[in-house]
Design brief:
This protein is an alpha/beta fold. The protein has two domains: 178 residues, Nucleotidyltransferase, domain 5, CATH 3.30.420.40; 148 residues, ATPase, nucleotide binding domain (Nucleotidyltransferase, domain 5). Helix content is 38%, strand content 22%. Strands 1, 2, 3, 4, 5, 6 and 11 form a seven-stranded mixed beta sheet that branches. Strands 9-8-7-10 form a four-stranded mixed beta sheet, sandwiched between helices. The longest helix has 21 residues. It is globular, with a radius of gyration of 19 Å.
Amino acid sequence: MRTIVGTMTGTSMDGVDAVATNIYGFGLSMTASFVSLESCEIGESKIAFRKLASIGGTKEETDSAAWQIGIITAQAISQLKLAHIDLVALHGQTIFHAPPKSIQLINPTPITDSFSCPVLTDPRQADLKLGGQGAPITPLADWVMFRSSSKSTAIVNLGGFCNVTILPENCTPNQITGFDVCCCNLVLNEIARARLGCEYDLDGEEAKKGSVNQEIFGLVLQKLLEQRHEDRSLGTNDDIGKFVIEIGDSLDTKDLLATVVAAIGACITASTRNVDCVLLAGGGVHNAALLHVIKHDGTTEKLGVPTQAREAMAMAILGALAQDGVSITLSQITGRKETDELVGWTQARP
């Protein structure tokens, strides 16, 4: 057995998640079990990170932000209080994604200084160099965690952007499909900041009070469906928050939120309509209004993976796969060239 830590911080920039995962076996025959999760808030540093994500910054600002992410990540790993760690796999904070360029910001030095195990970082670059999108990156890990021999399964991540992994019944890795769907929490949070003066609509309470405006619903849904069918990963310049706030200027906040939630739900449901079992994960699972309009069968908790832990646990699994000589991205999903070389991580420390 190996104990591997994966880390992740999402587009909401709320905090860094560190997940301890036990890995049994090797390569594609491995199984994984969730051990524990710790999170550290990013706090006021998110202001600087959002600035870098929206308009960029100087090398000094970028280096400072990378160091801060490294410090916070080391703290989150320390809070796991593990007696032994075999490997750490770091995702970092995405501040730019428009292939062939994608930046996941983290300075691994605070982690390599704090822990004596091998440390991996920068999981997308090898895929990008082979002409891929570098995303979605979790499907092979989802296969390890969630595949079923008796039914097709979709894992829906309700993050800043929604992405989906589809695992056909009794599938092999080359039968997995995965894709980005549409803008999700990013647009809802932007409405909350602009209209409510807070980071997000807690539990979807405002959205639940509102009514759907059919005209605005149609315009938003059209935008979301365009994103779904663009056959690329979503990222920088794909946030439709300003567009939505502009066209919904005449609506009450609760009605605008209800309308956008309904459009997101319709887009996601259309993307998973032919799947036997749809399981949700990511920050959006805490938005009751959003869950109400997505056809689903529960969350990844059903299969032993807390919704907040799924992405960081995926990083741990991808770290283990790379350690065993298995490429971590799938060419049918990211569009990268086929190769006999390992498509994996950068080693911060062997």
